[in-house]
Amino acid sequence: MTKYEIYELIIDRLWDEVGDLGIIELEYVEREKTNGVYLDGINVIVEGVNLAPCVYTGHLLDETVLDDDGIFTYPYEESYISRVVSIIAENIRYAVEEARTASHSIDLDDLNEETLIPVIVNTADNYNMLENTPHKEFLDLAIVIRMVWKINGRFGSALVNNALFQTFDMSFEDMLLVAMSNYTKMFPPKLENIFEKLSGIEQDYPIHLYKEELPMFIISNDDYYFGASVLIDADYMLSVAEFVKDDYYIIPSSQHELIIIPKGEVTECEYIREMIKQVNDEVVPKSEILSDTLYYYDTSKGRVEIAS
Prior knowledge:
This protein is 31% helix and 27% strand. With 308 residues, it is an alpha+beta fold. Strands 10-11-13-12-14-15 form a 6-stranded antiparallel beta sheet, sandwiched between helices. Strands 6, 7, 8 and 9 form a 4-stranded antiparallel beta sheet that branches. Strands 1-2-3 form a 3-stranded antiparallel beta sheet. Helix 1 (3-18) crosses helix 2 (78-105). Residues 201-212 have low confidence and may be disordered.
């Protein structure tokens, strides 16, 4: 069976499991995430609920084979299908309950300019997305805008694409100024010693780090949410230079954090570049990777550059 055929079968079976939840429609979707990542899921539309949760399912359907025509197919086994349907149905029940609660907590009309924040993404890896999204180039990255909200302690966000941008009566430059102001209030950045932050979990990293050898710092925020966006905050990056009393190198650990190494502690940049690539390949989820590039803050120029 092809992927689409098996999803038709699963959705048909799901109606027997979740038909009592007031669901109007169950639809297979393929959602584009950051860095060209696509996730399979089932979109759930519920009567009287203004939010449509998507239950991602691709991780459940990984028993694929390649047929003679080079097409990925799924082996049909009743026990396999029944197990997948049961798990998805349980997830849908939870998602519908969350959506009902959230719909009473958030008014979509309130998602205005006060919810905008800047997010940086890798330009090359998000070429298709950026074609339909207002953005500003920043080195080998691109600055986009997202609308963000928090319900039941969990964040959600939506990309401001060309269509959504048209609903705002402002230029992109003005929107970016508003978003930066919002960001520093909603997610104030925090600079921490990496060895205190990662105490007890350094062994999970493919390259061992030792405090005595290399003083390093992490920049993120209390929510660990799009913390790398501080890279475009000129005032904050200057304050970091003043704190470490030196120029510094910047490792783009993920979309959610940066790692800082004072210039005086670095004798070999190539090793750091190799470390960035290795960690991105082996540790960071693909959708959260920011870049394989090593950056550098030059105090005399007051700006971030790509390290030479």
